[in-house]
Amino acid sequence: MTDTPLRLLLDFDAFSQRDHHQPPAFLHRRDRKFALTCEQQGRTPNARLWLEHMARLSGPGADRSAGDKAIRLWRRINTGFVLVGGLLGILTMLGLLFYDGGQRINITAFLAFVMLQLLLALFTTVQSIAGWQPWRWLTKRLNRGSTSDTVHRLQPALMARASHLGGLSFATTGLLTLLVMVVVQDLAFGWSTTLNTAADRYHQLILWVSVPWHWVWPAAVPDLALVEATRFFRAGGQSNAVNPEQWGQWWPFVVALWGVWVLLPRLALSLFSALVIRGKARQLLNNHPAMHALMYRMETPTIDTGNEHNDAGDMPDTSTPTGLSPLPASNLILAWAGADKPELPQGLMGPDTQVFGAGGRATLAEDHRAIGHIAEALAGQPGGAVLVVTRSWEPPTGELQDFLETALETWPPHVVVHLVPLSPDPNQPPDDRQLRQWLRFAHRTGGDGIGVSILPGTPQDPYVIREQVL
């Protein structure tokens, strides 16, 4: 079902989007059962096995691959770039080789155009690595449906590959057109420039450009006599002193120039872009928010009482005298138990934000160091606040309570701590029941000194809003 890291990522992202509408209890039982089945079969559960399991659950009528839509879209984009690039390669080479018998085909113009192609190829690679998307308008126009954040992050690398494939097609058809024109016409090359350049200096430039192939194809390296004989001036008219055969002796150099400095870089960068896509797809899959939630569901046991009545929706008396508080502006963030992995939401980050880690795998000494560093930062911030980022689906622990009690004793008395529980998808609000447990924990631990906030822009829990009104 999944052959490449890209398809694996797209399939996983598509299934995770579907799971977003499923009840958490159902997802937990399903994935925990899958993990136990893998354990019985002696296999380690991973994304590929999980997708195959999901495909079996979906039945024979389901789509073969949930990521096929995105794959087909990018295949169409790649094909379009290849076709357009091939056509432009033919037209461009015909334009460069245009010869009406009155003037020579200028080698200097060829060199400038080849340099431009090389710079464009390098620029495309750099922009994809930097994540810049100058082609975003095109992808938005072609992909009219909603695009997930994962696919959005992968688009620079995918578009760079499409651009390199178009460039490779451009270079290939251009080279083929050049060879055909060499056979069917008597092309007359020469070199010309407005600058006061001597033939020997121009020959040095030709030798430098010819370095990659001078030992493989010596005939494609023009000698000084050819360079001296084939200089022309547009205002000078035709020169009858040069043997007409010498005008055509430049063609091996032009073929090698185009093949080495236009075709090969595009071929190498196309292969490199494929490697970048594979590596980025693996990275995005490992850091996918749904992957962390899936691993948690597979590792955490579920309790099945066998009672036909499902009381998962029956809420106990979870009322609390406190409600959500507005998220204060603060540049001090404490990520509890790795809650900043894979990354914190952009809404929490600012240019001066300092992020500290504690809890989880951190030692007790590291926890105390984090408390000390924050205390030093708070010394110059009267009325400061500290944001403690947690995972909403993990219950508050006694370790966190001890940590906060120690921190409140150490930090200045005016400091306010705000717990910020994050959902598996940071763009969505935490689940109602998960949010209530953090409200009860905050009230029990710190009273008015600890509040609970959610990210700005996420819908607030209606239950909590009602409590605030009351």
UniProtKB/TrEMBL annotation:
It comes from the Bacteria. InterPro entries: DUF2868 (IPR021296). It holds the Pfam family DUF2868. The keyword Magnesium does not apply. The chain crosses the membrane at residues 79-99, 105-132, 162-184, 250-277. Keywords: Membrane, Transmembrane, Transmembrane helix. This is DUF2868 domain-containing protein. It comes from Marinobacter salinisoli. The lineage of its organism: Bacteria, Pseudomonadati, Pseudomonadota, Gammaproteobacteria, Pseudomonadales.
